[in-house]
Every structure is written in C-alpha cells, then in structure tokens.
Amino acid sequence: MTVGMVWAQARDGVIGRDGGLPWHLPEDLALFRQLTTGGTVVMGRRTWESLPERFRPLPGRTNVVLTSDRGWSADGARTAASVEQVLADHGSFWVIGGGEVYAAFLPHADRLVVTDVDTVVAGVGTNDTSHSVALAAQAEKLGADGVLLVTPYYSKPTQAGVAAHFETVAAASGLPVMLYDIPGRTGITISEDTFRRIAENERFVAVKDAVGDLFRGVRIMADTGLAYYSGDDVLNLGWLTHGGSGIVSVVGHVAGDQYAAMVDAVDRGDLTSALATYRDLVPVVQAVMTTAQGAMTAKAAMRLLGVIDSAAVRLPLVQADDALVAHLREVLAGAGLLPDRAG
Q1: How many domains does the chain have?
Q2: What span, in angstroms and rounded, lies between the C-alpha atoms of 54 and 59?
Q3: Catalytic annotation on 156?
Q4: How high does pLDDT run on average in the chain?
Q5: pTM for the complete prediction?
Q6: What is the pLDDT of residues 124-165, one digit of tens each?
Q7: Sign of CA dihedral 264, 266, 269, 274
Q8: Residue 340: what pLDDT?
Q9: Separation CA 218–CA 213 (nearest Å)
Q10: SS3 209
Q11: Is 287 inside any structural domain?
Q12: pLDDT reported for residue 21
C-alpha cells in the first residue's frame, strides 16, 4: 500500500481559498496529471465540488470522495465514510484535498509531493502615480515579492516625469521593482538616460522589455546592471542569447515547460536544443500573439488545456470566437501541447 499526498502551497502554507485553488499553474497541473492519472484520488466533498463540472470526475482516475453524509452521491464518484474505509478498500491512492482530509491521512502517508508557489510580482502600473503608490503599498502588505511597474500610458509624460513616477512608486514600498517598457501600449519609451538615472536606486532591479531592440538592451544592461527579461515572445531566444536573465511570457501560460527547457538549454550552452524548442513553438507564438489580442488568445488556449474554466475577458476585449478557438486547438495539438483529455 502506498498513500501519497500531493498539493501546491504558498510560502505561508496556504493551499486553497474558498474551497478552490488560488492559482492555476500549468506546470503544477501537468505534474498532478502525471502523478495521479491511472490511479485513485481521494478528496473531501468541498474539493470535489470545487472542480470544474467538466472535470468531475477527474478523468483517467478512480475518484473517491470522503464524506460523512451517507446519502450523498455524484456521478463518477465513489464515496467513503471514513479514513479507515479508504485504507481498507483502496491499496494505493493519492490524497488531493482539502485541508481536513490531508490532516486525517497524514499519519498514514508515506509519500508527499509538494509544489512551492513562490515569487509573486504584483502589477502596480497605472498612469496615476498616487494610485500606483497605493497599489505598491498594498502589494507589500499582502506579501508580494516585487512589483511590475509599466511606463505611464496615455498621458505621455516627459522623461523627467517618467523617472519621477518610477521613483515615487518605488519609495512607497520596500519591494524590488521590475520596470515594463512597452511603447506600443503606452506611447512612450523609457530613454537610456532615464534607465541610467533610476539604476542608481537599488530598488530597481529588472526590466521587462517589449521595445524589441536587442542592441539597445545590451547597452542598457552594460551601463546599468539591470536584469533584462524578454517581454515579447517573438524575441525570447534572442534576449536569452544577448544576456537576458529570463522571460516574462504570454505564450508561457500554455508552454511553460517548453520555455523552461529552452532557458535551461541556453544556460548550459546548448543552443542547438534551445533553437529547436524555439522553432517548435513558432506556430504557437504566431497563433497566440498575432491572431488577436494576447489576453483573448491566451485565455482561450488555457481553457482548451483545462487550466481555467472560462475564457471570458473584460470589455473592450471580447472572448475568442469559435473560429479562433478552433485554430488555437489545431495549433496546440500540432505542437503536442493539447492532451487528449485535460484534467
């Protein structure tokens, strides 16, 4: 008999919220599928009810719900009234939640698989400095590890105003700051002189770049010591080979494992493998980043993968239509990213 327990947790030990998960991490879900598919999963009734309806029961597994209500039943679920009954009826299984169920089985467990959810960078950028100041202070209070601060949009401040905005927001908390330079959305580019100015403040540590000028980025990295992250999936490999520290990716929501492998390959000097991964993902990048607005396509793709339950977006964006979803499905399947059955 093997009794395994699997969960993801934040650094403060939080494993859930309101009966469900407070995060949806593709890598964690992939690990969960790998561990539990073909076996038995044991959960409490609240965990069962928190699953999206189309994933009840979790496919490819025997689903056992621990409940004291002997009259309760659900299609696809076996019930058990006690820990002892589960132990007697099932030779090996995985306990998947919630908190009270974990506590009940912990004395019997001989395997724990725990994913630590770490490094929360909160987006606090707006075109209203006072609002961004409030958001930065709130992010620190809630335990974020850093803040992402985009150039003020629409108002087109001078470079002196941009720098003053950044410095004022940075002073509102003790958190490290990643700047987001995306002139296509904000209408203004952070100048090299502004980067040199703010780099004198140790609070500024990194840049998410969507300018797309590799040579410029190399100069800024050399002059300032700021860590550069690709903010444009088209240039992910380019930034990594020009001294970038990593990527902040839209396509990574559906290809996180592949991009992690690409980063690892660059780190160990295996550019052949890195380029192969990059080329494999070109159709996915094209589908997610060029067919419609990225939030629309990314959410539609994540819904196809079973990561989220809804692909709804807020106006003025509209949800991906059937034709776009069909195209995304075809591309994801062609890249080997879409399992036969999500869950």
Answers
A1: 2
A2: 10
A3: no
A4: 90
A5: 0.66
A6: 999 999 999 999 999 999 888 899 999 999 999 999 999 999
A7: positive
A8: 57
A9: 9
A10: strand
A11: no
A12: 55
Is 8 domain-assigned? yes
Tokens of 4: 């395994």
pLDDT at 269 over 60: yes
Q: Which two tokens stand for residue 153?
A: 């949009």
Active-site residue, from 102, 208, 278, 299: 208
Nearest-angstrom CA–CA distance, 3 and 112: 9
Q: Please name which of 293, 290, 298, 300 lies closest in space to residue 326, comparing C-alpha atoms.
A: 300
Examine the pLDDT at 302 and tell me if it is beyond 80: yes
Contacts of 286 (CB under 8 A, 6+ apart): 331
Task: Clarify whether residues 201 and 183 are in a common domain.
Answer: yes
Give percent above pLDDT 90 in the chain: 76
CATH number at residue 94: 3.40.430.10
Q: Domain end: 84, 117, 150, which one? A: 117
The residue among 99, 64, 97, 96 whose CA lies nearest residue 82 is: 64
Instruction: Judge whether 299 counts as a catalytic residue.
Output: no
Residue 33 resides in a domain: yes
pLDDT surpasses 60 at 175: yes
CA pair distance 155, 90, nearest whole angstrom: 63
**Cis peptide upstream of residue 98 (ω within 30 degrees of 0):** yes
What is the DSSP annotation of 95-106? EEE-HHHHHHHG
The one catalytic residue among 141, 153, 156, 180? 180
Alpha helices in the chain (DSSP H): 26-36, 45-50, 83-89, 99-105, 129-141, 159-170, 183-186, 192-198, 214-224, 236-240, 252-267, 271-280, 282-290, 294-304, 322-334
- Burial of 94 per CB tally in 10 Å (0-12, 13-18, 19+): buried
